[in-house]
Amino acid sequence: MLNLFTQARRAAGRAAVGATVLALAGLTVPAHAQETIKVGVLHSLSGTMAISETTLKDTVLFMVQEQNAKGGVLGKKLEAVVVDPASNWPLFAEKARELIAKDKVAVVFGCWTSVSRKSVLPVFKELNSILFYPVQYEGEESERNVFYTGAAPNQQAIPAVDYLMENEGVKRWVLAGTDYVYPRTTNKILEAYLKSKGVPAEDIMINYTPFGHSDWQTIVADIKKFGSAGKKTAVVSTINGDANVPFYKELGNQGIKATDIPVVAFSVGEEELAGIDTKPLVGHLAAWNYFQSVDTPANKDFIAKWQAYTKNPKRVTNDPMEATVIGFNMWVKAVEKAGTTEPDKVIPALIGVAVPNLSGGFSAMMPNHHITKPVLIGEIKDDGQFDIVEQTPGLIVAEEWSPHLEGSKDLISDWRSPLNCGNFNVKTGKCGGAGN
Amino acid sequence: MISSARLRRLSCALLLALCGLCGALFSQPAVAQDISSPLAQLATDSYADTEAALGALALSGSPAAAGIVSALADGKLVFSAVPRQVFLRTEAGLVDPLTLQPVADPPAVKPVRVNNRVRRAIEAANGTLSLVSPDPARRLEAATAVARSRDTAALPALDLALSKEADPKVKTALTLARASIVMGQPGVSDAERIAAIGLVGAEGNQDALAILQGVPAESSPAVKQAAADAIAGIERSLAMWSMAQNVWYGLSLGSVLLLAAIGLAITFGVMGVINMAHGEMVMLGAYTTFVVQDAIRTYNPGLFDWSLIIAIPLAFLFTGLIGVIIERTVIRFLYGRALETLLATWGISLILQQAIRTIFGPTNREVGAPSWMSGSFDIGQLAITSGRLWIIVFAILVFVALLATLRMTRIGLEMRAVTQNRRMAASMGIRTNWVDAMTFGLGSGIAGIAGVALSQIDNVSPNLGQSYIIDSFLVVVFGGVGNLWGTLVGAMSLGIANKLLEPYAGAVLGKIALLVIVILFIQKRPRGLFALKGRSIEA
Amino acid sequence: MSPSDTRPPALIPTNGLVFLGVLAAVAVLVPLLNLTTSPDAAVHVPTYVVSLLGKYLTYALLALSVDLIWGYVGILSLGQGAFFALGGYAMGMYLMRQIGTRGVYGDPVLPDFMVFLNWKELPWFWYGFDLFPFALLMVVLAPGILALVFGWFAFRSRVTGVYLSIITQAMTFALLLAFFRNDMGFGGNNGLTDFKDILGFNIQSDGTRAVLFFLSALALGLGYVLCRFLVRSHFGKVLIAIRDAETRVRFTGYRAENYKLVAFVVSAMLAGIAGALYVPQVGIINPSEFSPANSIEIIVWVAVGGRGTLVGAALGAVLVNYAKTYFTSGFLAPYWLFMLGGLFVAVTLFLPKGIVGTYYEWREKRRPPADAAGEPLPDPKPAE
């Protein structure tokens, strides 16, 4: 905290001088030794999303400190500029503009919800800056100025369903989610996928609930009833953050155990479990690209340093944190490759950059601005950690445009020349979506 | 009744159990087979192999099997890759699973891993062992499980078991199980089928419905008719039960609303303070519970079941104290300016939220359920979860206690006097300032107690209060400001209406419909359900 | 207070003239300095400041609409955000239709989120929004009709005080839940975003921003004059009488509910216009604008500035939002809620009449009343 204080105060003091110097020099590569490279952090520190996003702010600050200890980037120290968009979507756009236009940051790490990303997109396009987005999301997007280090639906949902089919013999599916874009898309993709695997429509139940839904009695009872038809049943949960705790508590209360009806979740990680008594939940599953329990030297080292940095030996790590770390390292590498922080040079340099991930492999930035990832399936243990029961043998490339959705099955994204397009239609051979 | 969830877990157990039973009954001596190959399978670090090994172990009749299975369940079974071998981890170190002798030169070992599939196999294997145990309850569970599995192969074993069974309850269950199997079998006479349908139909639950729907399509019309009649009967009774279930859910939701709103009924209803910080008082109560549980976990884990009981008075005192402080420093300057209390308390709520976020962090905090609040039981087709039942009981207790305080104690009398006519009360010698502080403290303290209960069903996070504030105001206004009974009736009717609407309209539309209904209701009765009677035109 | 002063107050009092003068200066200077000076110049106004100030101005108009009904009629609406959001959605729907084939899927008719959810055709309530005049009409009609229906029910059955406040809150909460639903056809939680142009002008260009800014200032100025005109007229006197003693007004033969209804509908329409100007400047409209907390915040702006002063409401909106912008950046970011919360408590305790109200009080104490500017609130009644 103290560190952040001094940094910020220094920033405030130097902002005016720095800006003028920059403006006069008219270049992004000044020779001044004191010059720093600014890194924007756009995560909610208050409001409903603070619960998830605060950790990512800490992660970026931690990475900045680590990088500075290694000597910074291009011989300059990094400096984090933290703002609080307060879980307010228009405020995200305002703060993004402030970071880029006023603070002149070289890159922004931020956003969690899809709506916050959608809100800042036009700003990043207009002011031509770089956003690293670290959370699993619904796909159906590929923008020149955004790099997606979280999972696309095919990097999380489909391997999880495969696992349940093969290992647990699941025949009947409940797709339960919060009513917003990510669950809607994921469930659409899963529904198409399950049907292609021969699951009849009456064996799929889809249910949507509002944000922060807290009374799950009726829905859990429905799931229980749906699961008593004699076929092995599983729940695929895309229930969002806050609603998960009462959902799992109700599952426990109504005596549904993982051996009866397993629940596989895509939004429940170590941070979320820290708020739940996990003893009744042992055996329920989650699919991610990283777990704290990953048994690699790189991960152990990272956890030790992270816990030392936060001065909390119990502080957990999670998947979006790893995605932030990967994104940060990729940016550093690309800046060093390009020799400048100028977005027009860094954006092409980022494609093809590969950095070690924490699960023992290398993640690479693909031409569609998404990264390759392994998929891990974990079962909840009674200590709030995950027991990894399955890991895909190789890395999976993101399908930013899902082949299972009508509107996007002909689209691809490739930001290299000569294509340079986020929504190229392979049928019409034109950039710009499915239309004419 | 046994919960249906447990039944399914046992269905696997049953297959194995019956095989074991057959083996025993057909008087083949249980030869202790060589279990070295399943043991080697346990050491391959593959879930499929572990599962297969468990099946083999359960049927082996080896005296060591039970020990190995329970060690696996407890995570005490370890293996070494080279040589491929398993060991039991005991306090004395690694021991051989067969001889139980310590291993002289232990290799590097890892625990044999368990997933859902293996966990099910463990339960199945344990089931086999328990079925031979003389406990009739276990046999009963097994019989009910076979009724659901409808495995034709189990029929001879069932017949055999039926002939030996003495316990009438188990016998009924076995008969039922037999009937379930007979129904779907080819070559069974119509009379036997119809009898079976009658037996199953009498059960009247969801399982019976599933069994009856499995009557083969090629059955004779008489059989089909009998099945259809039975199905119709069950569906009728299930519809009734599901109505009862919805009412129960409604009562449960109503009790949550009551708890959330009852403190507000004091600070807002009685004192007229538009207390936007009410939700944060609930949150503080929940955090008090967390702190109490944390302390208990650290210093005296044995007291964990008492943690909520301990937290209740502490939460009351703590949030009550905060309430008194807020009243003395802010609210007391704002009496008579109700709308400005909205502004000030909104500010206070922001401060409290951020304070908690700074102290405890923005993430959820874990509040566990004591053992007496976990689990569920059935009444007929009605599933009652203990946690919810306790919350209803607790809500009613709080309500009664509050009512009694206001009606029967001196401070209650003074509170009513001050809120009804401040000047008159003051001239009678009541210290109105002190009473104001106490009243606000009481309302806040009650909110804190509600937080203890709500920590059992919701997130303990800085946002906890925000999610209840709108509903709380709605309940108080709907019931009629200034009337505790109105709050009770308001909470319960909103809860039940919500849950009756939910199955038809879905969670979201149901809630929207309810809000519209409340808005329209207020048009009809602009002062709520139980309006205070008075002569004043402008209250 | 000037009970003996019988002259009708001026349409625009001195402080109003100051307000309008400052507003006019800002409306002209800010876009001018943004467009004509080079970015290095000392007087240059960066684009992000223009859009920020533009947002404040729409908030100020929204606050004005609240002050009209709260300050002068005594209706504490905790649902004013709903009218604001409805106006915003109407404008957002027009902007969505303008995207045309430039959406990521390139569908000429359907907005992206509909293609995404596999909708085959445009829902009926989206018809007409490709026409700007129709969208403009809906900007005032949608909130206006909702206010008319809601107000007609509420005022006719004499729902007043906190009861009215709570049901307005229930109204905006119900709309929040409804707009969150993806099946509603308004884009669910993501709302409407990624706008391209308005009336053929690129929405991100500095020129368009400058015009939008100017229009926001103009709307605020006109809104202020309209409100002044209303409260100063005979109609306005009745409104103030209703605020102070509704029953007496009714006993004198006035149909109080009709007066309230007109004020309520006008206020909703003003809020709708504010919303319509807000959306193109911030670039997104989403159901969270319906959240009850937002509506409470609007009340807070008015209270900070001074209830029943009009100028104060606008000032409060700008000040509180500037504070929010300032506190949410830099090292203060983790603590800004303390500041904001503390500000609200402090204002109620030490400036119960708000900034402008307190200024009036202070001025009246110093010299005998010259012009009765705002309509001062009655002294608080003791709790009964």
UniProtKB/TrEMBL annotation, chain A:
InterPro entries: ABC_urea-bd_UrtA, Peripla_BP_I. Residues 1-33 form the signal peptide. The keyword Signal applies. It comes from the Bacteria. Keywords: Signal. Gene3D superfamilies: 3.40.50.2300. The keyword Signal applies. PANTHER family: ALIPHATIC AMIDASE EXPRESSION-REGULATING PROTEIN, PTHR47628. NCBIfam families: urea_ABC_UrtA. This is Urea transport system substrate-binding protein. It comes from Ancylobacter amanitiformis.
UniProtKB/TrEMBL annotation, chain C:
Its main location: membrane. Pfam families: BPD_transp_2. It is found in: Cell membrane. Keywords: Cell membrane, Membrane, Transmembrane, Transmembrane helix. InterPro entries: ABC_transp_permease (IPR001851), ABC_transptr_urea_perm_UrtC (IPR017778), LivM-like (IPR043428). This is Urea transport system permease protein. The chain crosses the membrane at residues 12-33, 45-63, 69-91, 131-155, 162-180, 210-231, 258-278, 298-320, 332-351. It is a multi-pass membrane protein. CDD domains: TM_PBP1_LivM_like (cd06581).
